[in-house]
Each structure stands twice: as C-alpha cells, then as structure tokens.
Design brief:
The protein is an alpha/beta fold. It has a single domain, classed as Carbamate kinase. It contains 8 helices and 11 strands. A 9-stranded mixed beta sheet has the order 4-3-5-2-1-6-10-11-9, with helices on both faces. A two-stranded antiparallel ribbon has the order 7-8. The longest helix has 25 residues. It is globular. The two termini are 22 Å apart.
Length: 235
C-alpha cells in the first residue's frame, strides 16, 4: 500500500460532468464508487471540495460585489457540494461525515481536528466544507491546511487533465507533461498547480501533491497504490 491516509481535492467544476453548471448526479455516483474502492481497502479518505460549479467569490468581486461577501457565498457553495457528495457516498454504503469551518450545526459537524481524525480511524470518509472559513483563502489552501492538520500522507488533486504540463495542453498539443517535478521547479517555471499560498504551505510542510485525471475510471485507486499516474510534486 502506498498511501494510508489521503486528502482528495476536487474542484466544484468536476461535479458538473457534461453540464454547464450545477451538479451531475451521474458524475457524483462515479466518484462515490471510486472512493468506496479505497475505503474497502482500508485507506483513510478526507475530501476538500471547491464551489466553482455554483459560485466563485473572485468572479463575484470582479462584477462589483464585495469580495468578502462573495467569498462567503463561495464557502456556502462548497457546503452544498459537500452535502451532495455525502449523499452519493452514503447511497454507495460509505459512512461519511461532513465538517464545516463555518458553524451550520443543522446539516454538518463543526470542524474539530481530533473528531475528524477519529472518524478517519473508524473508516469514515470526512468531507471538509466551507474552505478555511476565511475570505481571501481558496479551497486549495483549505485542502493543504486540512491535510497538514490531519497528518495526511499526500494531497491528490483530481482534475480533468492527466497531470501538469509545461503549457496548457488544450492550447498547445506539443506541451510537455511532467511525471515528477519539485516545488522549486514548478515555481520557477510558473506552473499553475495550486494558488501560491497553498503551494508554498505544502512545500514548507513537505507534503507531496499528485495532480491526476479523476475522470478516468480506476485512476484514483492506481494513484493511491503508487502507480505512475499524473504528476507528483514534492521537495
């Protein structure tokens, strides 16, 4: 077994499937199936999910909305996604807990590190909603922060692309894909893996990141078992 405890970072856009916005139940069910495979093998799974399929604080701010207000709206969007993913996982018979950095006791537990760790030890999937609970911090930063707090072995960033490239592969078909890259090299080359706050926090805490295509069936399990899928970033 390569990794024992993972933090899976999913973008809100990933939940749209083929849709233009919102949540695709089919895509959710596929993700739940992939995550269940890990749980059945005794791997501890925590998840941080974005909210871009519903609302983006930065986009709201660019249209004249107050940035802080927009960011809080984005945090609530991640809670909606967390509830949807929790529902899909429980439909697949996977015990799941949703914890949020903003208190919403009617639908989720407040984030408490010890409680989250205990859930993981008992084989429950833990979804962390509402980012860090603070404006101006992305869900990437939340993912790294939570991964460090729960002592995860790795951050798995599930995207629509099969790794990190020298340029956008959709714009330049000759872009070079990296199998491995150091944090320093990624910064020097200006590669957009995560936002800089999240990235440097990961680097300082020696927490590797694997960027991979989450939408290819079986990829998640392969990454966790140590197969060369996607791009690994470490010191």
């Amino acid at each position: 077994m390569h990794y024992k405890r993972i933090l899976l970072k999913l973008s809100g856009e990933a939940l749209m499937g083929e849709r233009q916005y919102g949540i695709d139940p089919k895509r959710l069910a596929e993700y739940a199936k992939d995550i269940k495979e890990l749980v059945e093998r005794g791997i501890e799974v925590a998840i941080v999910i974005g909210g871009g399929n519903i609302f983006r604080g930065v986009a709201g701010a660019s249209n004249g909305m107050d940035r802080v207000q927009g960011d809080y709206m984005g945090m609530l969007a991640t809670v909606i996604n967390g509830l949807a993913l929790q529902s899909a996982l429980e439909d697949a018979d996977v015990q799941t807990r949703l914890q949020t950095a903003i208190k919403i006791e009617a639908i989720a537990e407040p984030y408490i590190k010890r409680r989250a760790t205990r859930h993981l030890e008992k084989g429950r999937v833990v979804i962390f909603g509402s980012g860090t609970g603070n404006p101006y911090f992305t869900t990437d930063s939340a993912a790294v922060l939570r991964a460090i707090e729960i002592d995860a072995d790795v951050i798995l960033k599930g995207t629509r692309v099969d790794g990190i490239y020298s340029e956008d592969p959709e714009k330049n078909p000759n872009a070079k894909k990296y199998d491995y890259i150091t944090f320093d090299d990624a910064i020097k080359k200006g590669l957009k893996v995560m936002d800089m706050t999240a990235f440097t926090l990961s680097q300082e805490n020696n927490l590797p990141i694997v960027v991979f295509d989450m939408n290819t069936k079986g990829n998640l399990l392969k990454v966790v078992l140590g197969e060369q899928i996607g791009t690994k970033v470490n010191n």
